[in-house]
Amino acid sequence: MVETAAGPMPAYTETLPRIPESVAHARRLVDLALSVWGLSGVQDIAEIVVSELLTNAVQHARRDSVRVTVTRLGDEEVRVAVVDLSRTRPKLRAADADEEGGRGLAIIDGLSRGRWGVDPKPWGKQVWADLAPDKESPGE
């Protein structure tokens, strides 16, 4: 359980080494949580979001570990978050066409429909995205 302003919410959380191989482990944690909660409607986007969040932390944070959390916010909504020990806030930017990276936050912004943010901590930050299934019908 994670304590929020709305009270305790079910959550899965794990501390992982800040290495590229942890991205696959974080995706499995997200898959497990969403499977247990029966939230397959957000599984694909949650996997992409946690991959982008953790990749950013691996590339830009400091220290040896990060914390990944998946919190159930409602019947169909989850929050995917990564905490690291860097106070540097990520910035949403437009990557040039010839750049290999720099699109992670733009991807997160699109998949979360702009519902993401950064919570500063005294020792670092938490970057999160709230995700829900797309309710639009295919014909709209």
Automatic annotation (TrEMBL):
One MF annotation (Gene Ontology) recorded for this entry: protein serine/threonine kinase activity
Matching SUPFAM superfamilies: ATPase domain of HSP90 chaperone/DNA topoisomerase II/histidine kinase
Protein name in UniProt: Putative regulatory protein
UniProtKB keywords: Kinase, Serine/threonine-protein kinase, Transferase
InterPro entries: Anti-sigma-factor_SerPK, HATPase_C_sf, HATPase_dom
Domain of life of the source: Bacteria
Name of one Pfam family that matches: HATPase_c_2
Coiled-coil regions, chain positions: none
Domain Histidine kinase/HSP90-like ATPase residues, every copy: 20-112
Source organism of the structure: Actinacidiphila reveromycinica
